[in-house]
């Protein structure tokens, strides 16, 4: 396992030597005309990455319902932002998503993520999408890989 992690790190290091933010990220990029342009903040009390998101109608699956892949995308990016606020540049190595309740397009939701543990180059994190009452609609756990 240690050789796998070492080799994976070397591959990412070579591929992503110019790992820069050009502001075209679908989730948070300010220059992406089709993107969500989510602005993340760090909550000083909880240490979590947080943001508000409204999914427009063109991101639906079933009528009026946010496509599950978009929820997963935002959950993923929120974990990456939690790691970034802690000073780590990461990519997602593994993620599990649990959907609890549909999210509607055009409504405001809160996303949040936190780091649970750091193990060498691996960061364990979790994220969630909640409605305005705090009910969790979807949640994820993930292993992030430091690059």
Low-confidence spans: pLDDT under 50, at least 5 residues? none
Q: Give the neighbour order of strands across the main sheet.
A: 1-2-4-5-6-3
Order of helices and strands: HEEHEEEE
Please state the CA-atom Rg, rounded to the nearest Å: 16 Å
**CATH superfamily (homologous) name:** Hotdog Thioesterase
Helix content: 10-25%
Structural class: alpha+beta
What portion of the residues fall into strands of 2 or more residues?
A: 25-35%
N→C terminal distance: 18 Å
What is the number of beta strands? 6
Describe this structure in words.
The protein has 147 residues and is of the alpha+beta class. The protein has a single domain (41-146), classed as Roll (Thiol Ester Dehydrase, Chain A). It has 2 helices and 6 strands. The chain has a 6-stranded antiparallel β-sheet, with helices on one face. It is globular, with a radius of gyration of 16 Å.
């Amino acid at each position: 396992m240690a050789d796998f992690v070492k080799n994976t790190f070397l591959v990412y290091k070579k591929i992503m030597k110019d790992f820069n933010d050009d502001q075209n990220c679908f989730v948070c990029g300010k220059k992406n005309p089709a993107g969500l342009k989510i602005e993340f903040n760090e909550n000083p009390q909880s240490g979590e990455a947080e943001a508000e998101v409204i999914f427009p109608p063109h991101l639906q699956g079933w009528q009026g319902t946010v496509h599950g892949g978009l929820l997963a995308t935002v959950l993923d990016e929120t974990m990456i932002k939690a790691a970034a606020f802690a000073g780590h540049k990461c990519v997602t190595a593994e993620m599990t998503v649990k959907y609890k309740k549909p999210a509607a397009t055009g409504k405001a939701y809160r996303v949040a993520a936190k780091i649970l543990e750091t193990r060498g180059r691996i960061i364990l994190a979790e994220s969630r999408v909640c409605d305005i009452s705090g009910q969790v609609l979807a949640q994820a756990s993930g292993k992030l890989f430091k690059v």
